[in-house]
Amino acid sequence: MSETITIPPITSEYLTDMNWALAHSQELHDRYENEWVAIVGGEVVAAGPDPARVKATAAERCNRDAEEIFLDYVEDGAAVYGLWHQ
After folding, report:
1. Which of 22, 30, 65, 23 is nearest to 47 (CA)?
2. Which residues of 31-58 are buried (b: 16+ CB within 10 A; e: fewer)?
3. Separation CA 65–CA 12 (nearest Å)
């Protein structure tokens, strides 16, 4: 049985915050390593280990719907990714 989900549209503010995170990735890494960060208006408004709590905190602080908040995980760089071939 399949289920249909609705994905909210991506706003220009969301894209701006996503681009800000990319441009400031080193700053985010230096301060928020191994944490989720919520970015609104080009600033981190909440951070922590639990993405649901970070998003809820950001939504409350910014008076926005949680779906409108850009959320990013700041890795420590120790993860190794690869492809398996046989």
Report:
1. 30
2. ebeebbbbbbeeebbbbeeeeeebbebb
3. 15
Q: Is 40 helix (H, G, I), strand (E, B) or coil?
A: strand
The pTM assigned to this predicted structure is 0.81
Torsion angle defined by CA atoms of residues 49, 55, 57 and 59, in that order, rounded to the nearest 10 degrees:
170
What are the helix (H) ranges across 1-86?
12-23, 25-32, 51-62
Among 23, 80, 26, 20, residue whose Cα is nearest residue 45: 20
pLDDT, tens digit, 9 for 90 and up, residues 26-64: 999 999 999 999 999 999 999 999 999 999 999 999 999
